[in-house]
Amino acid sequence: MSEAILYDYWRSSASYRVRIALNLAGIxxxxxxxxxxxxxxxxxxxxxxxPQGFVPVLEIDDLKLTQSLAILDYxxxxxxxxxxxxxxxxxxxxxxxxxxxxxxxHPVCNLSVAAQAKALSxxxxxxxxxxxxxxxxxxxxxxxxxxxxxDQTPFCCGATPGLADICLMPQLYNAHRWKVETSDLPRxxxxxxxxSAHPAFAAAYPNAPAPADRPT
Length: 216
Description:
The chain folds into two domains: 4-79, Glutaredoxin, CATH 3.40.30; 88-204, Up-down Bundle (Glutathione S-transferase Yfyf (Class Pi), Chain A, domain 2), CATH 1.20.1050. 52% of the residues lie in helices and 8% in strands. It contains nine helices and four strands, in the order βαβαββααααααα. The protein has helices at 13-25, 44-49, 68-79, 88-105, 111-121, 127-147, 163-177, 186-196, 199-204; strands at 4-8, 29-33, 57-60, 63-66. The protein has a four-stranded mixed beta sheet with strand order 2-1-3-4, covered by helices on one side. β1 (4-8), α1 and β2 form a beta-alpha-beta unit. α1 (13-25) runs parallel beside α3 (68-79). It is globular, with a radius of gyration of 17 Å. Residues 208-216 have low confidence and may be disordered.
């Protein structure tokens, strides 16, 4: 079996999800950074890996996989991570919880989307902050309400990490980065505390950058 290679960017939410899953699976991989700020995702080398110009790209099992949710599904099915329940109804409910972040919050809070909105509107320099807060805060409020339908013992949907936890933690990283109020979200904060203490999540966390190495 060939070495697993993950092409990612340290602050990419989608890449963060895949790093967590790889850690949960105990898969050793080689990380190859794709600097989104420098535009490396638009270079010929990366477009050959993924014509969409997105990260992550995971090379594993002689496959080249894109789209974080598809990668998570592949790892779940091949490494038996138990990210989703077997029961069809419960599976759909947990997927809906995870997608509330991955499908509804994350796409509009992509930095390229915020930058384009800023360019079109001509707003001031603080526009990205306001944009992120406008979408992240209501999304997390809804996620908090949805969590009431699950038993946090102690993860989002039970005793072991699942798809919802993997989607939640990168979004909380962004929430804290953009100064989104989260103090009134007790269920979310309880899950965050649990996940933060889990080795697979901790190892995937975007480390504080050295100014000379990484942009803010």
